[in-house]
Design goal:
The protein is an alpha/beta fold and 144 residues long. The protein folds into 2 domains: 29-61, no CATH class; 67-142, no CATH class. It has helices at residues 29-40, 47-61, 63-72, 84-92, 113-119, 133-138; strands at residues 76-82, 97-107, 120-130. It has a 3-stranded parallel β-sheet with strand order 1-2-3, covered by helices on one side. Strand 2, helix 5 (113-119) and strand 3 (120-130) form a beta-alpha-beta unit. It starts with 28 loop residues before the first helix and ends in a 6-residue tail after the last helix.
Length: 144
């Protein structure tokens, strides 16, 4: 009896969307030493773990104020993605978008600077804006 096997092709690579943004901070030597001491005593797995925890704790402390500001400024909380098809629909409707995002605003790579200019009136992002350098340059005077 002969065995045969069917080999499946490897899955296609998926485009990876970053779920975080890298920041740089400067800390005093004493603060950094205290963080290292807590890491050394296994309170935190590393410096990044400590800093993320500290940030989350401060965001929780100010959680109610954040909710009120998000509601007042009518911000989208999280991820807002705009494809070329989305913006084409906006253009067909004769409208312009005022984009307000707390998190990540993403404009697809197939969006041309011309389409972005015709459909996006303003962009306010508290977080990060991912778009091609051409689209960012075209919208530079509309990004707040």
């Amino acid at each position: 009896m002969q065995k045969t096997s069917t080999l499946l092709p490897p899955p296609l690579p998926r485009a990876k969307v970053a779920d975080s943004e890298k920041i740089t901070i400067n800390l005093g030597y004493v603060d950094l030493g205290q963080i290292d001491l807590l890491v050394g005593e296994s309170f935190y797995s590393n410096r990044t773990d400590f800093i993320r925890t500290a940030i989350r704790n401060q965001l929780a402390v100010h959680g109610e104020a954040l909710k009120q500001v998000v509601a007042r400024k009518t911000l989208v909380l999280g991820l807002q993605h705009f494809s070329a098809a989305d913006l084409e629909a906006v253009r067909r409707a004769g409208e312009r978008l005022d984009v307000r995002v707390l998190g990540l605003a993403s404009i697809a790579g197939d969006v041309t600077p011309e389409l972005a200019l015709e459909t996006i009136g303003s962009i306010t992002v508290l977080g990060a804006l991912h778009a091609s350098s051409d689209v960012k340059a075209a919208l530079a005077d509309r990004i707040h």
